[in-house]
Amino acid sequence: GSLERRRCLYLHTGRACCQMVEVLLAVLILVCSSVSCGSAGGYTGLPALGGIYYYQYGGAYSGFGGAEGERAQQLDQRFYLLKLPIARAAMVVGGCLLVFPCVLILVSVLQVPWHFPAWLLIECTLYIVIAVSTVPALYYFLHSLLSVYNSSVCKEREQLYQSKGYQGFWCSLHGAEIAAGLLGCMAAMAYLLSAGLAIRDYRTVHEQKQKPLQL
């Protein structure tokens, strides 16, 4: 009926579109974080890459001797363990950022802001807090990754693979990690935009609810 139509109309509003963009950004952050985490067998170890890499190198660690192969595997595992807490933290944050707009979309579809306009002020405050908190979170994420890449484990691992002619094991941020940082910046801007839209909608709802009183 008319109630269902009014609920569906919210999904066509600017605030809803912005929240759906936030959902998409959160999903992409989760994906990039999982790529950064890698696998327990080695962050960029040949077994984890599989497929064309495995056959190109003629088998996992094929260019290494017995002791060197064991050392390469140990360095892969240590490198993975260094990056694991950072990647897990990024995935947790990404998961929270995914749930948050989904809850707000559900709340708005159920027309809670119409019955309780102050909710929009709460929503605006939450968005501003999250947007501001994103800045130190991104700094911690990138600073922690750079600390790992500057570690002796990463440097030794890089030199060991380069000595055998393997490429792609450099101690620097890779595409997925840079993308996660950029997505975080985009998410922060989307949160600020949503905060502004929440204030606008609060004023609109407040004016509409005051009209019957004026009559």
UniProtKB/TrEMBL annotation:
PROSITE patterns: MARVEL (PS51225). It is found in: Membrane. InterPro entries: Marvel (IPR008253), MARVEL_domain_protein_3 (IPR053077). Its main location: membrane. The keyword NADP does not apply. The chain crosses the membrane at residues 21-43, 86-107, 119-142, 178-199. It is a multi-pass membrane protein. GO terms for cellular component: membrane. Keywords: Membrane, Transmembrane, Transmembrane helix. Residues 10-203 form the MARVEL domain. It comes from the Eukaryota. This is MALD3 protein.
